[in-house]
Amino acid sequence: MQKRITRLLPLLLILSLTGCGSIAGIIGASPMATQILNAVSITTTTIDATRIVDGKKTINEEILSEVTNKDCKFSRILDNEFICKTWKPYSVKYPEGKPSDPYP
């Protein structure tokens, strides 16, 4: 895990320096919009960095997992794996078989 963090740290630093605000400034957005987007970018990068250190998914991984209904982690690329994997269904054992309607 430490090896992955060491590999991801330079990438996170680069991304934090070139956020959405920089792109907005290039295409001609107002200085206020550029500052807001830079602030949002720095905030999300900070949150993502702490989540990675804690072994949790980043914000974008959470969003991608919800949209695709799969388990997605970008760090799997480092292990030559697919980013998203199919959720493993959990099994629940009922004492008298499966209920007829779990959501009445």
What does the model show?
- This protein is mainly alpha-helical and 104 residues long.
- It has one domain (2-86).
- It has helices at 2-17, 20-26, 31-53, 59-68; strands at residues 70-72, 84-86.
- It has a two-stranded antiparallel sheet with strand order 1-2.
- Helix 1 runs antiparallel to helix 3 and helix 2 packs antiparallel against helix 3 (31-53).
- The radius of gyration is 20 Å and the shape is extended.
- The mean pLDDT is 75.
**Count of domains:** 1
Structural class computed from helices and strand pairing: mainly alpha
> What is the 3D shape?
extended
- Largest sheet properties: 2 strands, antiparallel
Distance between the termini: 43 Å
Helicity level, as a percent range? 40-55%
Q: Report mean pLDDT, rounded to a whole number.
A: 75
SSE arrangement:
Layout lengths: L1 H16 L2 H7 L4 H23 L5 H10 L1 E3 L11 E3 L18
Antiparallel strand pairs: 1-2
Helix pairs in contact: 1-3, 2-3
What's the short version?
The protein is mainly α. Helix content is 54%, strand content 6%. It has one domain.
